[in-house]
Amino acid sequence: MKTLKQIAVWSFAAFMLLAAASCKNSSQPASEPVSMTASGDTLTIDEVLSRADSLVGQAVILEGVCTHICEHGGQKIFLMGSDDTQMLRVEASKQLGSFPKETVNSIVAVEGVIVEDRIDEAYLRQWEQQLEAAAQSSAQEHATQGCSVEQQARGESATATARTRIENYRQKIAQRKQQQGKDYLSFYHAEASAYRIK
After folding, report:
1. Residue 102 parent element (H or E)
2. What sign has the CA pseudo-torsion 34, 110, 88, 85?
3. Which end of the chain is less packed: N or C, by CB atoms within 10 Å?
4. Are residues 140 and 193 in the same domain?
């Protein structure tokens, strides 16, 4: 039994090292702005967030102020709408590669597809199992999913521990199930195929 636990711990540790290495991999250089091909109205971040559920899977052009770029390869940026409660994560597609540092503090127009990310009980149980495995290998409980800017974009406290975040998600899921009959939370991001710094 002890051997199985050791195998599980070492497997998890190896997985985390691979994940960390791939996140820090910046082998793809920052892309040059790609010409935008879609036609149509440009949506503000506020407009995207207010009707994101109806935009899932659709190509859109959106625009906002870039407040942050992911330090692990520049593959994610965060665009702000009318205030810092209106944030949308934008991920560079494989063909786009990454975003340059010049996007930060600039108005950025993005052409991309809106994607829904769901958090449900299965997701939370898997997260708890990862925390348990990490705790058994003497890792810190503060191992989180996403940087503080991503937590802010989801309306979370950046200082909350992972276990507190999980419990908060469970409460929000219960509220949503009672109010809307849905047993998951939805968060949205855009997968960018093109962008332009204004």
Report:
1. none
2. positive
3. N
4. no
